[in-house]
Design a protein that fits this description.
By secondary structure, the protein is an all-alpha fold. The chain has one domain (29-102). Helix content is 83%, strand content 0%. The chain is built from four helices and no strands. Helix 1 runs antiparallel to helix 2 (31-51), helix 2 (31-51) runs parallel beside helix 4 (82-102) and helix 3 (58-78) packs antiparallel against helix 4. The two termini are 19 Å apart. Keywords: Membrane, Transmembrane, Transmembrane helix. The chain crosses the membrane at residues 28-44, 56-77, 83-102.
């Protein structure tokens, strides 16, 4: 059950990232924006896992981080502009901060 909750959390977090990518094309993207998204992904993952009766552990945080960083690396490789680098750095910081503060 915990694996299914972790997969659900990862899918929701990737959906958040895709929605954020779409919205960022019409707005401003910055380091702080990336940090907020990263923290938000961990926050949502925690709520999903707790809803299922489990607790957010470092394994779930690690899987959310790995999938988010993989998407970020793809974006850097494909669209390597300065704002993408700052945004993705912010996502990593937000993920780590969320993992530390919410576990």
């Amino acid at each position: 059950m915990e694996i299914l909750l972790a997969i659900a959390a990862i899918l929701v977090c990737q959906g958040m990232q895709a929605l954020d990518d779409f919205l960022s094309r019409v707005g401003v993207v910055s380091l702080a924006h990336g940090m907020l998204l990263g923290f938000g992904q961990i926050f949502v993952a925690k709520r999903i896992v707790e809803w299922g009766g489990s607790s957010l552990g470092w394994m779930v945080v690690a899987f959310v981080c790995i999938t988010s960083v993989a998407v970020s690396l793809y974006k850097i490789h494909r669209f390597g502009t300065r704002w993408v680098f700052a945004f993705n750095f912010g996502v990593v910081i937000g993920l780590l901060y969320g993992g530390i503060s919410l576990t």
